[in-house]
UniProtKB/TrEMBL annotation:
PANTHER family, A to Z: ABASIC SITE PROCESSING PROTEIN HMCES, DC12-RELATED
Biological process terms in GO annotation: protein-DNA covalent cross-linking repair; proteolysis
InterPro entries according to UniProt: SRAP, SRAP-like
EC number: 3.4.-.-
Pfam families: SRAP
UniProt keyword terms in alphabetical order: Covalent protein-DNA linkage, DNA damage, DNA-binding, Hydrolase, Lyase, Protease
Family to which this protein belongs: Belongs to the SOS response-associated peptidase family.
Organism: Leucobacter massiliensis
The protein, known as: Abasic site processing protein
Enzyme class: hydrolase
GO molecular function, one term: lyase activity
Length: 230
């Protein structure tokens, strides 16, 4: 699973020059504020392509995907993660997979090990300053609001079975998006089906071998000290 992330972009966002994601991450998103302990239901940065005009967008979304038919900005079950193996089958995720896919660019994330009485958090970082996670998004509209108002962008992060550095830490890990599939993933004209999800999930494997992780102290508050080694 992926339930806590780190978002700490430097001025040039740390995106490699010429990398596909740099075409979406132009400047920091409006309202940018770094966080070293960003949680579900809080605003999380997402990059996506607008289906209406093909524009590239980089902005904050409510971290937990809310289906359009929901009567409130929440779901009856957790939707901050979506399993890659079943996203194409689930009514909440299937429409977004078809043409509303996004990237969640993070600086890192956390996972815990050990017994429930003594859980140890681990900070995990990718081979580059920005780690692209495959996600899905939807637009949720407040019931009763005017058509041109009351819209909320919501998003979820795909997960898959762990591999590489993640295997000793947890049985699930985020789907890391390889450079070779990033443009296809962000193209709403590319049909989103299980074959696409499988390909993207496989692109995680080389990245999972290049992650680095270390134990940190229990997460309290929100600041750069949270990623200091324990």
């Amino acid at each position: 699973m992926c339930g806590r992330v780190i978002v700490d972009y430097d001025e040039n966002l740390g995106v490699a020059e010429g990398g596909a994601l740099s075409e979406w991450m132009v400047g920091r998103p409006d309202g940018y504020a770094p966080s070293w302990d960003l949680k579900p239901t809080q605003p999380i940065p997402v990059a996506f392509t607008d289906r209406r005009d093909g524009s590239r967008r980089f902005e904050y979304a409510h971290w937990s995907l809310v289906p359009p038919w929901s009567k409130e900005l929440r779901s009856r079950f957790p939707t901050f993660n979506a399993r890659a193996e079943t996203a194409a089958e689930k009514p909440s995720f299937r429409p977004s997979l078809q043409s509303r896919r996004c990237v969640v660019p993070v600086s890192g994330f956390y996972e815990w090990t050990g017994p429930k009485s003594a859980r140890v958090p681990h900070a995990i970082f990718g081979p580059e300053p920005v780690l692209p996670l495959a996600g899905l998004y939807t637009w949720w509209h407040e019931p009763g609001a005017a058509d041109d108002a009351g819209w909320h962008l919501t998003a979820t992060i795909l997960t898959r079975s762990s591999a590489g550095v993640m295997e000793p830490l947890h049985d699930r890990m985020p789907v890391f998006l390889g450079e070779e599939l990033l443009r296809d993933w962000l193209d709403p004209q590319t049909l989103g089906d299980q074959l696409l999800v499988n390909a993207v999930a496989e692109s995680s494997l080389p990245i999972s071998e290049r992650l680095r992780e270390y134990a940190v102290r229990p997460l309290r508050g929100d600041g750069p000290e949270l990623i200091e080694p324990a």
